[in-house]
Amino acid sequence: MAKTVENQQEEPGFWGKLFTGDRALWTIIALMMVISILVVYSSTAKMVYQGASDTGTYSYMFKQIFFVMLGLGIILLVHKVDFDKYRAWAWLAYFGALGLTIAAYVPGIGIVVNGARRWIDLGFMTLQPSEILKVATILILAKQLGSRQQRIEKMDLLPPLEFWRWGRTWRRVKRTLVENTFPILGPVVGSCAVILPAHTSSAALLFLTCWIMLAIGRVRGRELMRLLFLAIAAAVLALGVLNIGRSDTAESRMDMWISTLFGSEKVAVQDLTDTQRSMIAIYNGGLTGKGAGQSIMRVELIHPECDYAFAFIVEEYGLLFAIVIMMLYLWIFYRCKVIFDGCASGFPSLLVLGLGLMITFQALIHILVTINFMPETGQPLPLISHGGSSMVSAALALGMVLGVSRALAEKTLDRPRGESLYEK
User: Fold this and answer.
1) What are the phi and psi torsion angles at 127 (to 5°)?
2) What is the pLDDT of residues 117-151, one digit of tens each?
3) Residue 182 needs a FRET pair 20 to 30 A away by CA distance; which of 124, 247, 281, 372 works?
4) For residues 387 and 127, what is the distance between their CA atoms, to the nearest angstrom?
5) What is the pLDDT of residues 296-311, one digit of tens each?
6) How many Cβ atoms from other residues are within 10 Å of residue 346's Cβ?
7) How far is CA 154 from CA 24, 151, 421, in A?
């Protein structure tokens, strides 16, 4: 009888069965989604003041509520998928996201927003496929690294850079290219190359995340340095020499950042850059903020609800509340690290940490831009900034993280021999 009562007490209720996986991560997600609705509602008042909307600020709030509910639905769906399906569907997800990202460049399919063609109009929202491609690239890289853990510390990731000597050892070079370079680096290079023309900072963010995943995945330091050298050379060639994509925009933003950082000339109010206005917003906010709905700079900033959400949060709610926001992102990464430690197997471990790094890095870049530590990038604040694509990307990432944590809790996470990150 006692055992029966004990079993009844341990049986999870409806909400416990619905929201499975890491409970702390669910709490963070809920807090950020609520904050997102409040921030978007208050920051988009400028659209009404400037006559950009005749439906009032509630339209933006309801739209953000839709994005939040869409993101929540994606998380619930993805985290209930059996973990082995992540591995099985990795290539399908990658090529699907890659195809959509390429399609966004095609006139008639992709649309131009803010001077860049990287969106597809779905009717109910505009989708930026490159955001989904970032998640898919991390998924496929985790799969490729996980399956090679037994020999990864001894293998060459790249053939010798002295390509004129390949003829002497062509058989070994061919084996390296076919077995290691193309399967592991091919998806990363392909994604960065496709994303770069429309969104330089997203390509750089994705490469940095993947490079760190390679390091955690026990790729040799010599191989990592060679890859970094090639990546820098390719970026200089693409942006500085060939002027691919929005290289002019990237150059002008860099010049503006340097002049703002080191310049001492007085500038008229109407000539201030968005970053300068965001710093004014942060200064106005102080420790406790001006209060909800009392922001002054939201009318001056071009995208306070998206690209400069953090500055707007500081102005209205204060630096203390902004520190809470930063701690939530660090908490996300910490929970990913806890799940990473519990996995042991290469694929789920690298997947969880890679997705956690992507979200944390994006938040960090957003914050650094608002305080002029980096040139403008257009990176939204994950889970908080207004926009459907960013919400969908974060939801897919967090859904998979929660899916891994659910498999851990239910003891259904496979640990194939030879895939441990700790095996020698």
Assistant:
1) -105, 135
2) 777 888 888 889 999 999 999 999 999 998 888 88
3) 247
4) 9
5) 777 677 667 778 888 8
6) 29
7) 38, 6, 14
Residue type, 213: M
Q: Is pTM beyond 0.70 here?
A: yes
Token digits of residue 355: 């997705």
d(CA 244, CA 197): 6
What b/e readout covers 256-290, taking b as 16+ CB neighbours within 10 angstroms? bbeebeeeeeeeeeeebbbbbbbbbbbebbeeebb
Q: Which two tokens stand for residue 317?
A: 């709610």
Contacts of 104 (CB under 8 A, 6+ apart): 110, 117, 118, 119, 120, 128, 129, 130, 198
Residue 169, both tokens? 């050892």
- Sheet containing 116-121: which strands, arranged edge to edge? 110-113, 116-121, 126-127
Residues 407 and 398: beta-carbon distance below 8 Å: no
DSSP string of 332-399, one letter each residue: HHHHHHHHHHHH-BHHHHHHHHHHHHHHHHHHHHHHHHHTTSS-------TTTSS-HHHHHHHHHHHH
Return the structure tokens found at 187: 């998806």
Concatenate the DSSP letters of all residues of 275-310 into one string.
HHHHHHHHHHHTTT-S-TT--SGGGTSS-TTTTTHH
For 335-350, what is each residue's pLDDT tens digit?
999 999 888 788 999 9
Three-state SS for 118? Answer: strand
C-alpha span between 384 and 32 (Å, rounded) = 6
